[in-house]
Amino acid sequence: MISFRVNSKQVRFDGDADTPLLWVLRDHLQLTGAKYGCGIGQCGACTVHIDGKAQRSCVLPIAALANKSVTTIEGLGDENGQLHPVQQAWLAVDVPQCGYCQAGQIMATVDFLQKHPRPSDEDIDNNMSNICRCGTYVRIRDAIHQAAKLMQKGEQQ
Amino acid sequence: MTAPESADWLASVSDKDVTDPGRRRFLITGATAAGSLVLGLPAGGEAFSSSDAAENRTRQIGFFVEIAADGDVIIGSNQPEIGQGVRTALPMLVAEELDVDWARVSVKPMPLGLLKTADGYTWKYGGQGVGGSTGLTRNWDFMREVGAIARQQLIRAAAVKYEVAAKRCTTRPGYVISDDLPRDIPYGELVKTAAALDLPDHNPVLKDKENYRIVGTRQKTVDAHDIVTGVARYGIDTIKPDMRYAVIARSPFLNGRVKSFDDTAARKINGVLKVFKIDGPEPGAPYLILASGVAVVATSTWAAIKGRKALQIEWEPGPNATDSTDAFWQQNEEMLKGSGQIVTDDGQYESAIETAHKTVQRSYQIPFVSHAPLEPQNCYAHVEKDSCHIVAPTQMPGGASRAAAAVTGLPRENIHIDISRVGGGFGRRLSNDYVAEAAMISQQTGWPIKLQWTREDDVRHDFYRPGGLHEMRAGLDETGKVIAWTQRLASASKHFRRPNKPDDGLWEPELYPDDFPRRIVDNFRLEYFHHPIGLPRGSWRAPAHTANAFVIQSFLDEIAHASGQDPLQFRLDLLGKDRELEYDGHGGPTYNPGRLARLLTFVATQIGYGDKRKKDRGVGLATHFTFGGYAAHAFEVSVDDAGGLIIERIVAAIDCGLAVHPQAVEAQLQGGTIDGISTALGLQITVKDGQVQQGNFDDYPLLRIAAIPARLETHILPYDDVPTGVGEMGIPSAAPALTNAIFNASGIRIRNLPIADQLKKARAG
Ligand code: FES
Ligand code: FES
Known about the structure:
The complex is a heterodimer. By secondary structure, chain A is an alpha+beta fold. Chain A is built from five helices and five strands, in the order ββαβββαααα. Chain B has a seven-stranded mixed beta sheet. Chain B has a five-stranded mixed beta sheet with strand order 2-3-4-5-6. At the A-B interface, helix 1, helix 2, helix 3, helix 4 and helix 5 of A face helix 6, helix 8 and helix 17 of B.
């Protein structure tokens, strides 16, 4: 039995300890925002935050989650339904095409901007590695810059 | 086993066994219990008599447009959304003609609608299916007419209610207006009256382009909020009560079979419920599913995957056990030494090439590639005694219903298909093999199941873009003008195990005879050699255009260089002025090479084609006509001494006639460009010992953001007032513009795709 938090709620899982977090989220907790794309840590569609850090949940056995705190895309906005600035920027730029990769892209970006609050294009190139099969990269780049600006504004207020 | 949903781009879009009832004639109106006006197509088979009460009629309406008493508008979206923006663009057309504020519109996905008729089936909500970039063009008139009829109905309602003349009334967004009316009347106040009126039997008047308020404006993707908050539902997100999870261990050998298997260990895995064999098709026979295998059904996806890993399966490698792409490429060369099927032969090719002042000959190789949509194949199926429910990410819901019917033996009218949002299509989901598999497993177990493909399943069991070797030859006169042209292609035809396809028609999906420069070069010949291989083939975004544009646009560059001409001017001379040339294939009946010339000039100017550049920097151009739309690319790249490639800048331009939803047009152009370079740089599927060698994104490396230049500019060049499709136009000219730029920068000519490490090797000498 493993006990951990997901989007501020305490949850328990008593299945096999090698079950990847992704499938626990999707099949058992019915949180389907994190997506399955490759299962080997390559694409980032399954990105969630573990104690605030972006991780690829498809290669994370649930055994490693004991007492950790997980945030998924469903829990990224605040309690009042206010979107995270990265989500706001994603909407403003209208990033999604099929949209399948976007939850992972957004979760990766939130973590990235914590470490690089004023990112250069080079920072983006060196740190953002999630795959988008539809090729929304131009707008992802724009949205990252916009989100960075939104977050700076937020801090000044 | 019966014929599959054809993966043929167009044949399947037109879904031949479903007839079109002449849609507008069947539009009817009614009112909902809440008092909304509904305009739609009859959901029952029978016609309605005008004496039926409006409320009675409504219950039988296949929902389409609903106008609520508060003025809110809901528009049904009948087409699969695969990221092309159709769920936004089509409702924009309705809203435009209805004359409402886009902000008041919400969009609701609709299921597949099929009606049984005396001799087959007819569409309930208009034809449903997306492929060949036709989603918008096929519905352009219909959607506008639906909106215009609803508007007309509201005007007539105002006229009746206020006893004024309908012809003296018009609308502004959301209101019927007239000097004769006491005030501007909100649509909401008119819905009840409108619902009780019969529809007029004459065609509505459609707006002129000048009066558009929504079409051609930048609108946000309808489902964007759901996507960024993680609540958008894709097929893979389907969860139903008592649902079990299934995976299949499929034969790794092309056309291999399960010889025997031992499931002792698999059954011991926690959560594994059932394990059983799935018979595949006979090798070479038309397929419903692709491969023989063993299904594992479990209480969770992970348990099913673990159970599959624990299976001991002995495979019968079958007739393609020694197939390899290495041998395929060698044999192509052998084949081209002989003579093939002449499929087009204009003028006097032989004598023209013999008497030519100069000839140029080159060969180009196009690899097999996989679709790899980011959402792997999956399907929910619940087969019961008399009915079946399917939720599938599919481009062809009609094909999904056919596949489920073939497997279960149920009549199609008893098969309910819900179309989920789709995590990428690219042509992969024109085939519904995964729907057939899911229906089989549900029927066999009696359970509602969700079949999940892993990424490895997806990459190894695809309908790949056909690989081929193209031999090009051109003859020039003294002035450098091309007077003779031939393309000789040895390839594995996309027509893979299709029933009723004669051998002499296998060339049809591989060579589109009317492509440029036919009818411009007088002596023109196309020759085809079909080269079978066990690897399944299908429609991959813009099918043969991706191969042929690369070949033709590279060869033009090579001819220009070989004859001392400037590659841009040489192309412009060939393309010539505006005029319509016959084009029999999809996208015809004519095309205008002048529109290509205009785009080419535009991108060349934008990128500074004639500018002096540093050593190791270069620019390259290409343009292509794809399924009715026109596009061009200019690339600027640098290649360093070690063969390191940097794409510095890309200018892409599209002429799609009228851009209905410019936001999506740009997205498709960006995405197509990136798909083009991603594929050209690193992607190919190879076969060894009868097995596909790639399996996941580690060995099938889709591009990531770092490889995409920050300077990727897209431009829409408007033309006329009718839209063309946009989903595929952005891809074909990207790769040749890139490799032409590489040549300009480095002197290295890429003739075989993917580029992979060819530059490094060439630099290393
Ligand atoms: S699904 Fe986890 S990285 Fe691809
Ligand atoms: S939007 Fe389709 S994969 Fe990124």
